[in-house]
């Protein structure tokens, strides 16, 4: 019985692979990525903590890169980092990051 299963498996595999063309892939030398920002927490927009422009309209994917507070999208200010390392969009308003140990510093674009 086991021999039958093994033979059927081999035949099925050969049948499914019939007509399949195998391609040889030749490796190429990879280009080394260059870092575009100077801080270790680089992101694709180049945002950092060096003074620049306040971020009042962050990209839609912002919270996929940065850890945002739950009501980030309800914010009506600029992006700030809270003391618990979460990000808020209520910079410049009273009570920003009040449930996150307070505001720490703004995040800037350049």
List the helices and strands and how they pair.
Layout: H1 2-17, E1 53-54, H2 62-65, E2 78-82, E3 87-91, E4 103-106, E5 108-109
Antiparallel strand pairs: 1-5, 2-3, 2-4
Walk me through the structure.
It is a single chain. With 110 residues, this protein is of the alpha+beta class. The protein has a domain of 66 residues. 18% of the residues lie in helices and 16% in strands. The strands form two sheets. The protein has a three-stranded antiparallel beta sheet, with no helix packed on it. It has a two-stranded antiparallel ribbon with strand order 1-5. It is elongated and about 75 Å long. About 10% of the residues have low confidence.
What's the gist of this structure?
The chain is of the alpha+beta class. The chain contains two helices and five strands.
Distance between the termini: 71 Å
Number of helices: 2
The backbone outline, from C-alpha atoms, is elongated
**Rg of Cα set:** 26 Å
Q: Which structural class should the secondary elements be placed in?
A: alpha+beta
Give the neighbour order of strands across the main sheet: 3-2-4
Q: Describe the biggest sheet? A: 3 strands, antiparallel
Write down the overall mean pLDDT.
80
Key phrases:
alpha+beta, 110 residues, three-stranded antiparallel beta sheet
